Amino acid sequence: MSDSRTSEFIERIPVGPLALMPLDSIQPLGQKVDEYLSTWRTQRESDHKETIAFNGYQKDSYIVQAKVSRFGSGEAKANILETVRGVDLYLMVDVMNYAQTYSLFGQVNHMSPDDHYSDLKRVIAATTGKAKRINVIMPFMYESRQHKRTGRESLDCAMMLQELHAMGVENFITFDAHDPRVMNAIPQDSFDNISCSYQFIKSILAHVEDLDIDKNHMMIISPDEGGMSRAIYYANVLGIDMGMFYKRRDYSKVVNGRNPIVAHEFLGADVEGKDVFIIDDMISSGESLIDTAKELKERKARRVFACCTFGLFTSGFNKFDQAYANGTLNGVFTTNLIYQQPELLTKPWYISVDMAKYIALIIDNLNHDMSISSILDSSQKINDKVAAYRAHREEMTQQMELPL
To answer: How many domains does the chain have?
Structure first.
């Protein structure tokens, strides 16, 4: 971190002593975030650090231990094992961690998003209003796919946000929300929907060595109309074209809770001979993503990569293994914001995008009551990365052309 940023941090009094509380569902990511925060703050030197305003500022760990215990009936209670009086508390939860289990009448029960959300509320309730400020970091927003009403339906995501507001949560932080307009449910609270674009582009440039980033060789693809704005941003910041598929569905049928897709129709420039990147917020079963990749290969795309914030892989990895083996899909990038199966991390087609440093930076700014606008606007950083990548490519090309 630069000296100017260090000076800026140390001159702003924190809202309260920092306390990080990652629930069991998100412990590995929470520990990484904690390590970044501890390292940064240990390195900061100032005449103010011994004052009462900065009491407890430099610590080996900011994690406050909490425990959720369950009875044999499946009922639960939360206990906070350290004081949280007067702290600026950051709760982290992964509602998609199905690997967590508990005993239910002697049977092993995998935790659902409902279970994780209930545990979050239990932990908030256990603070008994003693924290100075409560912030929730929920990378995959609970019930974010049930965000609007098209008939006599529940509005689960909006209800969740209102419940957390009623429990005293002031800041809600999520990543690539399925539809960020759901923030209208809590108009008086802070709702930050954070993009992972810089981290994805940084990872792409680190793992794909032979990209020509121009309109003739590369293209961004949105797999549906809902992700248009996301794809437009990537295309604009990279200076390349974009295309879009829209799904024709059979609205007379409902299969697994949704209308089945009849066909994928494409709108956009020619993809022949280009490296294309499918940009989306999540991979669920992966069926739609692989169908899109097939359509692109049929249109003679050179290579097809997928960049999706959340990799759920609800139907396993077989389809992806086959798509990689037959050349339909050349790589898949997803973040570590939600649980990743150990098997997934061994796949030759998979690249994990680490978000721990980004989360730590956001927490550090918020704890000092500083704006995070400069963190969220990553256009300049992306431009710098792309320029460095192009310069390196040009240098390597020149070296290869030199006579022996």
So the answer is: 2
